[in-house]
Every structure is written in structure tokens, then in C-alpha cells.
Amino acid sequence: MERIQDFLLDRDADFALLTPSPNFLYLTGIHYEMRERLIGLLVTPDEGPKIVAPSFEVSTLRTQTWITDFLPWAEDENPYKRIAEVVSPSTDGHIAFFDDSMPLGVYWAVQLEFQKMRECASLSPLLNKMRLRKSEQEVDLMMRAGHVIDIAVSNAIAKARLGMTELQVRQIIENEIVDREGTPTFATVQFGENSAHPHNDSGLRQLSIGDVVLLDCGCSIAGYNTDMTRVAVVGYATDEQKAVYSVVLKAEEAALARLSKGLACGTADGIARKVIEEAGYGAAFTHRLGHGIGLEVHEPPYLVHGNPAELEPGMTHSVEPGIYLEGKFGIRIEDLVCICEDGCQVITYSPKDLRVIDTQ
Predict the structure, then answer these.
(1) CB 3.0 to 4.6 Å from 150: which of 63, 291, 344, 350, for a disulfide?
(2) For every one of its 360 residues, what pLDDT tens digit does the chain have, with 9 covering 90 and above?
């Protein structure tokens, strides 16, 4: 909060306003889905932060945040006028900063209330930079989530049976997560030819002998996410499936062996991509190597060709090479890592052998 206030002071800004979003959660500890009533975080350069909230929500929100100062508004009040009452007036117009996730309707309402707005800009670049390098406590939460998703995916593979649909196997994963006090965030289960589409939705496709089963799943603990992809086959693996799996695994291992502070994100992508290209499958690796993860499943840094940003200790991101053969199957192996002073630490734990689902 001090960094934000210093930022506002340096720019002679009057206030910053954030609405519920990952950045809002990062700063307040409040996980809230914005609806029609305004809830926000108001920061000024020279006073403590305030939570703007409907009066009837205050007692609940107090239990979720370290912030003690609230700016309540009644149902028959205009919350934007309440904000204007506590923001010091400026003779030549206000300077304000907003989060990129702010709903457009809220932005317009602020503009209407502060008609002498001299300048407004985004606070998100500062917040994104702050969130890039995770603390030990943040990494610990992601590691705990990693253990939950490991067990959930392993148990789903063990419980899968012929005739089950993708949706039924996905439900097993979600139930396993809830049983271990995690929060399901996403689970994509793809059988056979559906696995050749990197982000295909789970549906009513039934499990059959010879299918590749791709499970891309995540959960969160206290808002911090994990993301892992594992692959199994039903009954047996063909020579082609084994060969493709081996290439993808080698690509992931090559990248993991080289990840360290100072390595450019684009270079990391190239390490894995070279392995796949040399095996003759370059055109079938259709997406970037990885994405950052934390309070959001996808956030900076992005390990993609051409990105010169360098990895730093505390950054957490996925490593997920894949090969997708249209009409046949797709193979993707995904783990999460935390960049360390020397190399990286893998923070997902499930074995990476090609699992075989029993047909009995």
C-alpha cells in the first residue's frame, strides 16, 4: 500500500480506485464478484486505504480484510458522491488511477461525478509488476494447491471406466478437489480425437479402448492457483502415441533443465520448441510454452517466442509443450515452476509416466 501511495504522490495524483479483481484481492484479501452495487478500494496519497461498500455488506467484508476503514453507502445514496466527499478537491481537476479490470459502467460513473477530471491512467502496470515475484507465503499456497490437484487427477485416472463421458470424469476431479478443501477453478477432460484441440470443452464423448485421455486441471487455495496437465491411454498405447509422448516429455525436460533467473522468456520457449521441431512435429506445437500463474491462472510472465522479459526469482509459471495431431490425438505435459536463485523448483507433483486406464 505504501508503494501505491508513493506512486500517487510522485504523480501528483488525487486518488486510485479499484473494483473487485485479482488486483483488488491482492491488496485487500477480499474475494468478491462485482454485481450492480459498487464495492471498491479507495487509495489516496496521504490517508489510509478505504473500502467503499454498501452498508449492509460491511460487517461481512470486515472479516475478510486487514483494512479497517470503510466508506459505507446506503441503498438510497450515490456511492460516487460518497467518494467525492472524501477525496480532496483539486482546483484544476483531479488526477486518478484505475485498475484495468474496472467495469466500464463504473468508469463512466466516476467520470460523471468528477467532471473536472484532468487526467486518468492505469494502475495495473505497477500492480502487475508487484505481483510478478511471489513471496514464500504465496508460493506455499500454490504448492498446497499443487498437492490437491495431483491427488485429484491421479484418483480420476484410477476411477475412469469405459463408457464414462468427459463430463463425468471432470466431475470426479472437481469432487476430489472439494473433498480436500480446495476450490475447483477449471477442469478440461478430453478423450481421443478431442484431445487434439488444446482448449476443447468437455462434453458427452464416451471413453473407449485406445483413447488418449488429456486432463488439464486446476484449483486454488486462498485464491492462489495451480495448473497441471497429465495424459493417460485406455487399455494400451500405440507406437505413435508412445513416440509423441516421448517427444513432448523430452521437450518439457529440456526446458526445465535450463530455466533459471536471467533467461529470456522467448528463449525458454525456443528450448522446448527446438526438441519438437527436430522430431518433425514443429507445426503441431501450436501455442506458447507457458504462462505466469498466481491469483490468476493466466498472468505475466508469458513464455512465448519474441518475449525478451527475463525470468526472476519468485516468478511462477507453467511449462507445457504439446503436440496435436488433428483427427487423432493430442499430448500435452504441464507443470508449474518457481524460479529460484539457482534454477527452478517444480511445484506440481504428479508422476509423468504415460498412465494406462484399466478396461475391466
Answers:
(1) 350
(2) 999 999 999 999 999 999 999 999 999 999 998 889 999 999 999 899 999 999 999 999 999 999 999 999 999 999 999 999 988 766 677 889 999 999 999 999 999 988 877 888 999 999 999 999 999 999 999 999 999 999 999 999 999 999 999 999 999 999 999 999 999 999 999 999 999 999 899 999 999 999 999 999 999 999 999 999 999 999 999 999 999 999 999 999 999 999 999 999 999 999 999 999 999 999 999 999 999 999 999 999 999 999 999 999 999 999 999 999 999 999 999 999 999 999 999 999 999 999 999 887
Q: Are residues 266 and 202 in the same domain?
A: yes
Q: What is the 3-class SS of the chain, one letter each residue? A: CHHHHHHHHHCCCCEEEECCCHHHHHHHCCCCCCCCCCCEEEECCCCCCEEEEEHHHHHHHHCCCCCCCEEEECCCCCHHHHHHHHCCCCCCCCEEEECCCCCHHHHHHHHHHCCCCCEEEECHHHHHHHHHCCCHHHHHHHHHHHHHHHHHHHHHHHHCCCCCEHHHHHHHHHHHHHHCCCEEEEEEEEEHHHHHCCCCCCCCCECCCCCEEEEEEEEEECCEECCEEEEEEECCCCHHHHHHHHHHHHHHHHHHHHCCCCCEHHHHHHHHHHHHHHCCCHHHCCCCCEEECCCCCCEEEEECCCCCCECCCCCEEEECCEEEECCCEEEECEEEEEECCCCEEECCCCCCCCEEECCC
Q: Do 123 and 140 sit in the same domain of this protein?
A: no
Same domain assignment for residues 181 and 233: yes
Total domain count, the chain? 2
pTM score, whole prediction: 0.91
**Domain ranges, residue 284:** 136-357
Same structural domain, 301 and 183: yes
